[in-house]
Amino acid sequence: MSQLSKQKYMASSSQTPGPSRVNMKKKKIKTEEKIVKNEKRKADKTEEMPAKKKIKREAVLDADEDIQLDIPYMLSQQHHLDMDVSVNISHLLEEDHKVSFIARYRKAQTNNIDPELLHEVAASHAYLVNLQTSVGKAYKQLKKEEKVTPELRQALVSVSKKSQLETLMEPHKKGPRTTLAARARDAGLEPAALQLLHGTARCQPAALIQPGQEGRSTLEQIQTGLINIICDVISKDVTIQQEVVRMASHPGIQLVTKQKAASKSQPAPADDQAYKYKNYLSFRKPIRWVRSFEYLAICRAEEQKYITVRLELPDELRYRFRDHCGHRFLSSGMRDAVRESMLERAVGDVFSKSVTRQLERQVRSSLKEAAEREALLVMSRNLKAKLLTPPIRGRVILALDPGFKACKVGVVSAQGEILQTAVLQPRLAARWPHVSSDAAAVQLREMVQRHSVTLLGVGNGTACRETWQYVAELNGAGWLADSPLDVTLVDEGGASEYSTTKAAADEMPELDCSVRSAVSLARRLQDPISEYVKVDVTCLGVGMYQKDMPAGQVSLVLGDVLSDCVGAVGVDLNTASVQLLRKVPGLNAGSAENIAQKRREGKLFVNRQQLRSVKGVGPKSFEQCAGFVRILPVTGAAGKKTKMTPKKGGKVAPTDPEPLDQTIIHPESYPVASKLLKLIGCSSADVGQEWLADRLTSRCGGRSREQLATDLGTDVHTLELIIKALSEPGYDERQEMATPMFWKAAMRAQDVRCGARLRGVVRNPTEFGAFVDLGIGESGLIHVSKMGSAELRVNDHVEVEVIKVENKKFKVDIGLRLLRKLDGRAEPKAG
C-alpha cells in the first residue's frame, strides 16, 4: 500500500466509527425504542376496549410505519353506526367471532343491531381489511422507490375504495422504459419545464434550441418535450389525483351503450339473445341512477360482444379540472403568455389522455363493486329464506325428477326412509283421458296407492312444465288417488350434482345415481336445511347473474349464510349428520368428522361440556359452537352416563346431563339462568316443562327487565334470550316462515289469460322484481313497478293478477301485478 493510500485509509478510519461502535449504537437505539413501546403497552392496558383496539391495529401495521385505515370510523360512516358499536364489532370480528355468534350472544356490544345489517357490516369489514392490506403494500412499494410525500401518505390513509387506491397509484406504475417525459428529461429540458410549471423564472423555448441534439433541434421538439414533462408532473401530483377521485362521483357522468355492428367475426345476436338484452342495446343513464342488475346485464352483454360501453363526461368536468390545475400551479410565480399557453396545452393533454381513462376505470370499478355487493345481498336473503323453509312433517312423499326422455321417481316415508324408486318414461304430451292409458301413469298410480302417498313434489328443472302438466292431468281427474293430492314444486338446484358425489353413494349405496336425486327432492320437502347442506351452496341458484360474480366471493358469502341458518335452527349433537355439523358456526369438516367418530364408537354426548374432549374443538371453537348444538333428552344418551376420554392435557368432562343443554342458552350464561330459575322457585330440572313459561310470566312480569338484569348480574339482551329459551325450549325460527304452497290441480300455461287472478309463491326476488311460481309449470314476473310498497321474500304467498301473456317458442312470458300478500303459515289452497 502506498503512503498516500495509507494516509487516506487512516483519515477515513479516524472519521468513521468502526463496526462494533455502529452495532452498539444500533442496539442502544433499539433498546430505547423497546423500553418506550413496553411503557406504552403498560399504560394502554388501563384503557377501555376502543383504545385497546387502536393499539392492536397499530401493532399489526408497525412494519408499514402505522400506515392504516380507521376501519371502525369508516364502518360507522358507511352504515350509520354509533362509534362505540362500530369499534366493538370490529374488535369481535378481528378476534374471529362468527357473525351468528355475535348476533345472538353479543347483543349488548352491538346494541342489538339487525342481523342482516350485521352481515353487511361484516362484509364491509372484510372488504376494508383487504383494502388495508393493499394500501400497506402500495405504501411499502412507494417507500422503497422513495416516492412517499406527506401528501401522498395522507391520501393513502384516506382511501375508502379499491378504485380510489388504483387512481392514486396509476401514475406510479412502471410503464415503458423510456416514456416521452423521460426522453425529454434525457435531453436536459426538466429544469426549464419546472420553471414554467412553478413560475420561478421566465422561460423562452426558442433559447433552448441546440441544433443536432436529439429532442432539442427544433422549436417544436422543445415545446413538445416541455409539455411532456409538465404533463408527467401534473399527473403524479397528489392533490390532482385526489381531485380526480372526487370528480368520479359527479352526477353528470352518464353510462352509454351502443349495439355492435354485425361482422363476419361477430355475427348479429340470435333473437332470444337480442330480446334478453333489448333494454341495453341503446342505453343512456346517469351513473347515480344505474341499478345493480342493469350494470351486471350490461357487463354480460359487453363480454359477449353485443354492445360497446363508454362514459360520457360533461364539459363541466374539463373546466373543473382546468380551474383546479390553474389554482394549483398558476396562483403563484411569474405570469406571462408563454407560461400560460404551455400550461393550458399540458392540462388539456393530461385530461384527454390520462384523466378520462382514470375516471372511466374508477367509475366502472365503483359501479361493479356496488352491483356485486347488491347482488350478493339479494342472494343471501334468498338463500336464507330457502334454507329456513318449514319442514313438512308426517307425510309420505313422492317426488319426480323431470326429464323429456325419462322421469326419476322416489318415494320416502314420513321418517325419510326410502320406500321405492323407479325410472318412468311418460308420454308427457298426452292429455286426459288418453293419459290414463300410459304405462308410466299406471305405474305412478300403483306407487301412490301402495305407499299411501299424500304429497307429490315435482322438480323445477328440465321438462318441469311438461311433467307438471302431466301430473296435474292425472291428479285433477282423481286418477292417482280417491281424491286429488297436494302437489308442489321442489327446487332441484344441486340435486343432480349431489347424486354423483361420494357422500350420496355412502348415504344411498343401494341406489343408482340416476334415482338418488329423486329421493333427495322428496327429503328436501321433509327437512329442507338438512338436505341443502349436502349440496355445494353455489349450485342452489339463489340470484340473478350468480355466474358472473367472483366464484370465491359467492362461495364465501353463501357459505356464511348457510352456517347462520344451521345455527338459527340448531342441531342435535347426537343425531345430526356430518354435513350438518360441519356448517355449525365454530365447527369445520375435521371436528364434525371427529364428533361423528365418537358417536360411531358408541360414545353419545350427555352434555355440551363433553364437546371439549373432541379433537379440533378448542376453547375458541367451543365458545362459538356451544350455543348452536343441543343435547335433547329424547336422544340416545338420555339418562346414561357416557365418559369421554379427554384430549391430552385436558380435563375430564362431567358425565351428568345438563337440562339447559336443550336450549339456546350459551354455557357462559348458565349461572345467570340458574339464578333466574332459583328466583322463581324452580331448578334446571324443570326446563322443558309446559308450566315454566307461566311461572316466569307470573313471577317476573311485574319487574322491569333492566332491574332484573342488574339483580342477576347480566345485561337486558342476555336476560331476554334466557327467558325466551326457558319459555320455549324447542323454539324453531322456521315456525315464523311461509310454508310451501300446494295445488290440487293446475291449469296449463297456454290457458292463462290476461285479467286472471291466481295465487302463487315467490321463488326468486330480485332488484327489478320477483318471479312467482303459479302452479302452471312457468313462473311469472311481478315487476318492481307493480309491487306497490310491498317487499317480497322467497316463499311468500301472494295473490296476483295476470297483466301480460306472451307465448314464445320454448316458454311463456307472464307479467303479473301484486294484489296482496297472503299468510303463508295458513297454507291457502291455490287454484
Q: What does this molecule look like?
A:
There is one protein chain. Helix 14 runs antiparallel to helix 17 (315-329), helix 16 crosses helix 18 (337-387) and helix 17 packs across helix 18. The strands form four sheets. The protein has a five-stranded mixed sheet with strand order 6-5-4-7-8, sandwiched between helices. The chain has a five-stranded mixed barrel with strand order 11-12-13-15-14. It has 32 helices and 15 strands. It has 831 residues and is an alpha/beta fold. Residues 1-32, 39-64 and 826-831 have low confidence and may be disordered.
* Largest sheet geometry: 5 strands, mixed
How much is the average pLDDT? 83
Major sheet: order of its strands? 6-5-4-7-8
Number of helices: 32
Residue runs with pLDDT of under 50 for 5 or more positions = 1-32, 39-64, 826-831
Helix content: 40-55%
Distance between the termini: 109 Å
